[in-house]
Specification:
This protein folds into two domains: about 60 residues, no CATH class; about 150 residues, Nucleotidyltransferase, domain 5 (2-Layer Sandwich). The chain is about 40% helix and about 15% strand. The two termini are about 20 Å apart. It is built from eleven helices and seven strands. With about 250 residues, it is of the alpha/beta class. Strands 1, 2, 3, 4, 5, 6 and 7 form a seven-stranded mixed β-sheet that branches. The mean pLDDT is about 85.
C-alpha cells in the first residue's frame, strides 16, 4: 500500500469543481479512481495490471476514456493554471514525444495527420508546445504532429500569453511577426537572433539563462511513462495524459 498513489482530501477539493455532473445514483469513489488513473499514467501500466486497491480495472479505464473524450483533464489543468499570478516573464518551447508503434499503426491518413503524429529525423513523433511561467510551471499546452514547425505552435499559443514584461524563447522563435506581436502586447522578447539574420537583434543574455526552467519542466513531465512514449492513437487521450501529469506535478 505504501507504493500506491493516493490523492489527499485537499487535492480532491481542488479538482472537484472540474468534475462533470454524475447521472448515476452513486458514482464510484473519485479519490480511489483518480488515484489509480494517476498511477497508471505515471508508471505506464496496462489497465488489467492496476492494483486491486483501486478497484476493478474496467472502472478505471471507463472513467479515463470518458473524461478524456470530454476534455475534463485538460480543463482541470487549464483551470488550476489560470491562478498562476505571473507578471514577470514567461517561456515558450517545444519538445518531441516519441510515438510507440501501437500509436502509429493503422493511421487514418497518410503520415498520421489525423493523429498528430509525424515523421522526423528521430522517427515518428508528436510535438508538445508549451508556455510556462518564471517558476517553470506550464500555463498552456498545444500538441501537433512531430514535423510541424515551432512557428505554428507559437502562433496557436500567442493569444494565451498573459500580460507579462518578458517572453523567453530560443532561436526557433526568432521571427519578425512574433516580435511585432509581442510589441503590440507590450511584451519584450528575449530571443537570440538566427544566424541567417542580416540585422543583429539585441537580447539579454543574463535573463536568457533562466530559460532552462522550461527544459527542466519537460524533463519532469517525461519522467511519467505515458509522457515519455506516446502509445495511444487518439490525440485527446494523449493530451489528457499530458494535462494530468502537469496538474499533479505542478498544480496540486
Amino acid at each position: 500500500m505504501s507504493d500506491l498513489i493516493w490523492l489527499s482530501d485537499e487535492q480532491i477539493a481542488k479538482l472537484a469543481p472540474f468534475f462533470p455532473k454524475s447521472y448515476a445514483k452513486h458514482r464510484v469513489d473519485d479519490r480511489r479512481v483518480l488515484s489509480g488513473i494517476i498511477l497508471f499514467n505515471r508508471n505506464g501500466l496496462r489497465w488489467r495490471d492496476a492494483p486491486r486497491a483501486y478497484g476493478r480495472h474496467i472502472r478505471l479505464y471507463s472513467r479515463w476514456k470518458r473524461w478524456s473524450e470530454k476534455g475534463i483533464f485538460a480543463r482541470m489543468m487549464a483551470g488550476l493554471a489560470a491562478e498562476h499570478g505571473e507578471k514577470g516573464a514567461v517561456m515558450i518551447d517545444a519538445t518531441y514525444l516519441k510515438a510507440h508503434r501501437t500509436a502509429t499503426s493503422m493511421a487514418a491518413k497518410k503520415g498520421g495527420g489525423g493523429r498528430l503524429i509525424g515523421r522526423t529525423k528521430g522517427g515518428m513523433n508528436t510535438k508538445l508546445h508549451a508556455i510556462c511561467d518564471s517558476k517553470g510551471r506550464p500555463l498552456n499546452l498545444f500538441v501537433t504532429a512531430g514535423q510541424v514547425s515551432d512557428y505554428i505552435g507559437a502562433r496557436a499559443l500567442l493569444s494565451s500569453i498573459p500580460n507579462v514584461d518578458w517572453l523567453l524563447g530560443d532561436r526557433g522563435y526568432d521571427a519578425d511577426c512574433f516580435r511585432d506581436a509581442f510589441k503590440f502586447k507590450a511584451i519584450r522578447a528575449c530571443t537570440p537572433g538566427r544566424k541567417q539574420r542580416n540585422t543583429p537583434v539585441k537580447w539579454d543574455k543574463r535573463r536568457y539563462k533562466r530559460r532552462n526552467r522550461i527544459e527542466i519542466m519537460f524533463g519532469k513531465l517525461k519522467d511519467w511513462r505515458r509522457m515519455a512514449t506516446r502509445d495511444k492513437r487518439y490525440p485527446k487521450v494523449c493530451l489528457s495524459a499530458i494535462a494530468l501529469a502537469t496538474t499533479v506535478i505542478y498544480w496540486l
